[in-house]
Amino acid sequence: MRQAKILFRNEEAGLLTQHDDGSFTFRYHEAWINDSTKPDISLTLPKTHREFHSDYLFPFFYNMLPEGSNKQVVCKHHRIDADDPFGLLLITAAADSIGAVRVITSEMP
């Protein structure tokens, strides 16, 4: 299992988890949900108390990944399997992302 903190404008909004079977879960932190001034990170991931589950990386996060030759360069440089979107997300969306959302490594509890 791997986890990543999801930051919105440098504030921690939730947690993205890749399970051992390859599926994914995203959930907002309670403090984020309870604060009416905090927005959804995506229209496809509205603020709610329920967890979101998917067999694949959620499209919102998948669309943050590099493509084509940029993906090849990043994978080669960081020695990441091209078929590991979560690993690629952790490398590319930590500091260099378009928009307000960043993805950073989370230490396992």
Coarse morphology? globular
Radius of gyration: 14 Å
**What separation lies between the terminal Cα atoms?**
11 Å
Task: Figure out the total of helices.
Answer: 4
Please list the strands of the largest sheet in the order they lie side by side: 4-3-2-1-5
Strand content of the residues, in percent? 25-35%
Low-confidence stretches: none
- Tell me the helix content: 25-40%
What is the number of domains? 1
By oligomeric state, this entry counts as: single chain
| Overall pLDDT level | 89
**Strand tally:** 5
> Helix/strand-derived class?
alpha+beta
Explain the overall architecture.
- By secondary structure, this protein is of the alpha+beta class.
- It has one domain.
- The protein is 26% helix and 26% strand.
- The protein has helices at residues 30-34, 59-62, 68-78, 85-92; strands at 2-8, 11-18, 24-28, 52-54, 101-105.
- It has a five-stranded antiparallel beta sheet with strand order 4-3-2-1-5.
- A hairpin with a 5-residue loop joins strand 2 (11-18) and strand 3 (24-28).
- The mean pLDDT is 89.
Quick structural overview:
The chain is of the alpha+beta class. The protein is built from four helices and five strands. It has helices spanning 30-34, 59-62, 68-78, 85-92, and strands spanning 2-8, 11-18, 24-28, 52-54, 101-105.
Keywords:
HipA_N1; 109 residues; alpha+beta; HipA N-terminal domain protein
Blueprint (SSEs and pairs):
Blueprint lengths: L1 E7 L2 E8 L5 E5 L1 H5 L17 E3 L4 H4 L5 H11 L6 H8 L8 E5 L4
Antiparallel strand pairs: 1-2, 1-5, 2-3, 3-4
